[in-house]
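Extended Data, panel c. Modelled sequence:
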Amino acid sequence: MNSEIETLIRKAGEVVVHARATHIESKDGHANFVTEYDVMVQQMLREGLYKLMPEAAFVGEEGECEDSDGLRFIVDPIDGTTNFMRGYNHSSISVGLADGDEVIAGIVYNPYADELFSAEKGKGAFVNGEAIHVSGKPLKSSLVLFGTAVYYSDIRDQTLKAMTVAYDHAADLRRSGSAAIDLCSIARGCCDVFFEARLCPWDFAASDVIIREAGGVVMNMDGGKIDLHQKCSVLAGTPAATEEFLKYIK
């Protein structure tokens, strides 16, 4: 993505860093929230991206979806809303650019750490302009990251089964509350496997191309292709560790 889009996302990050949520509403399901800043940042990104690339449709978490099979931005204005609400400074802004069934560019910005992860298809992956790569570690040496959402109680057993695999076969595991940051941690090589049994496209779209350009793999938890048009499971990591993890969870 061009520098103007990066500048727009950094400006949105400044809003997030200095914000304190005061208006909180519940969405579908237990403990599923949206704040005034989720809506504000999404509108800021929508208006700015449209000015820069008016030919692209816009798909956002907070109710502005113009999904298509063509060129479109897939955006999460605040990935990690509960963290944001509580002042637990571990949230991100995620902007992916998809063409058909493929993400061709992505940016994930952690404004609290001032870390901007970026990638374009065929051009490598970067954080603040420095090239990054997955670690290449096998599962037994892997730090496994995972996500859960309490409002998806129907997939609890699937999540617990995968967690047990990590306990039994990996070095350790962590949960942070921001799938986009977790996935970028895979891309930069400080962690090695990530899984979540159900995510929306805006949670993983930008990170998908970042991981792939860093030498990693991204798939669903059945080993198939992730879906950019609907919720799906996500499994990502180093090629060797992810292949082994997939074998155990199957």
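The first helix runs from residue 3 to 17. This feature is highlighted in the accompanying rendering.
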